[in-house]
Amino acid sequence: MSQMNTLLEVSGVSVSFDGFRAINNLSFQIGPSELRAVIGPNGAGKTTFMDIVTGKTRPDEGRVLWGEKSISLLALNEAQIAQAGVGRKFQKPTVFEEQSVRENLMMARRAPRSWWAVLTFRASAQDRTRVEELAQEVGLQEHLDRVAGELSHGQKQWLEIGMLLAQEPRLLLVDEPAAGMTPQEREHTTDLLVEAAKTRAVVVVEHDMEFVRRLNCKVTVLHEGSVLAEGGLDHVTANPDVIDVYLGR
Amino acid sequence: MRKSFVAQNPSVLVFLICLSLFTVVVTVLAEGFGVGALSTSFIKTLGKTLCLCLVAIAMDLIWGYCGILSLGHFAFFGLGGYMVGMWLMYARTEIIVEGALAQGDIPPTPQEIIDGIGNQIFGVVGSSDFPVVWTFADSLMSQLLLVLVVPGLLALVFGWLAFRSRVTGVYLSILTQAMTLALALYLFQNDSGLRGNNGLSGLQNLPGVTAPQSAVSLWFFWASALALGAGYILSAWVVSGKFGSVIRGIRDNEARVRFLGYPVESFKLMLFTLTAMIAAVAGALYYPQAGIINPAEIAPIASIYLAVWVAIGGRGRLYGAVLGAAFVSLVSTWFTGGQAPDINLGFYTVQWVDWWQVILGLSFVLVTLFAPKGIGGLFDLLKREDKA
Ligand SMILES: Nc1ncnc2c1ncn2[C@@H]1O[C@H](COP(=O)(O)OP(=O)(O)OP(=O)(O)O)[C@@H](O)[C@H]1O
Ligand SMILES: [Mg+2]
Predict the structure, then answer these.
(1) A58: domain range?
(2) I want to staple B118 with a disulfide (CB 3.0 to 4.6 A). Which of A183, B128, B270, B351 is the partner?
(3) If DSSP codes are grouped into helix, strand and coil, which group holds residue A221?
(4) Chain A residue with Cα closest to B257
(5) ipTM
(6) Which conformational region is residue A37 in: left (phi greater than 0), alpha (psi within -120 to 50 degrees), or beta?
(7) Ligand in nearest proximity to the CA of A175
């Protein structure tokens, strides 16, 4: 075998909440360094899809396989999945509001996660420089010692993206990163995601078509819990089904 | 650049200085070696208060920093007391029994001595055999080790079961109350092996020590101050740095910490066990000063009081826990010890022994509603004025 071409493979996954099928026989694949946009109307199951991959929600059926060895993510808990290399940014920015930007980034930074390793952790010069670089990348270098709760909504989004990068995951799941951002901030976000996708897989959920166009990548359209169409943005937007359920409204 | 631990945590240095000054002043004023302005029983009250401050720090670590409202930490405190009490009682009774038997013509056999001790200790519960739990009671080293091991193991097993099933919030608090209640009820039984509701007594008498209580009370006062200082440093170290970040993260958003890859359950379990052991050390120093321990000490309400002290002092800061425990327990001793004069209103006499509980309950409610930062919050005001 030569190179691995699938990092994450989701197949035949379904999940119901109180009889309502939020995800219906969903299949999805992504390669090790690929950028993918996932779009779909409200309630299409985009966030639920991320919940399944990150271990927050257990599917009723189906498989979720990961990495070269095709291990099943369904057998791992949230922390183990994160350690395996899946990082996630939530739809609503969730940073640790009572801690400084620096502490948030340091906590996210890739390092052994056991309690003993954390208790005896001493930040090396390299750790500190990396945290400062990350802050620079997401435009928060001026705010390193501010408490995250004081940041604006957009800045919290940035901080969370910074934390995601600090984790150095192999797969980034990013739920609506541009919500509440100014046009310039959106542009910067696009650049960051495109850059990140050069060395890892990135899945971006976004409602904003302009944003998706700028990502310039393959698009998966979700509807009622399964894939409606997949391909280039122009290709999917020309699909009559897609126009019907999503764009036409 | 990297700053030293003390530079990053100036409150540690301030606290240690205050604690040392306090210890010196009390020693100078004490009956034992000093001018005698403070009675021996008051020295014991102060020593016990230091132990309560230490268990309050443990409570603050688990609740204030990690958000786990354990209402069972006084059970660990009591267990620590029992472990050390067993040795104190055994060793002292041994001396008495040996002395009594030596009066006879033939020297006693070891078995006679053991039986004598058993009779003395367990006579009150109608028995004379040593229960299994007393296996190591003749060895001070073993019992000191058990001060850490028994509460630590209980916390480990209990925590493992609770955290593994992701029991959180109110449910966890209720579960910890159930644990301490079950333990108290068990110890109340005569066949629990720990003398039922009689508990262990005479703990203020150190076996083989002829020094007067005025000196012994100071030794324990010093030991308590030392333990509090060490506990403060240990706790400050634990909550500083990345470990502190992670546990505060768990308090504020447990799920998010999991998605960062931290095994939240093992962090909680480690902290729960560590704080149980700190509580146990505090208890092991407290009960020799109190002189007696019985199962009523670990009634569920005791652990609730512990939470009240920390809330009033200000949770999420170590000195807040210390201030809360010292302030509330000293005021409480004053009110319930009959020192506070009753107020005669003509139609009704306010008796503080009863009304103190009401005041305490009321101040807890008021603090929770209007000053969630507690007494410690006052320091924030001072700091802000400094800057302004
Ligand atoms: N825990 C849950 N319990 C019950 N229903 C749920 C749960 N999580 C999601 N759902 C339902 O599943 C459906 C899919 O929700 P999901 O959040 O995945 O949509 P989405 O595509 O992310 O939508 P949006 O664009 O609004 O974020 C919705 O109808 C939602 O109400
Ligand atoms: Mg969503």
Answers:
(1) 3-247
(2) B128
(3) strand
(4) A79
(5) 0.91
(6) beta
(7) 2
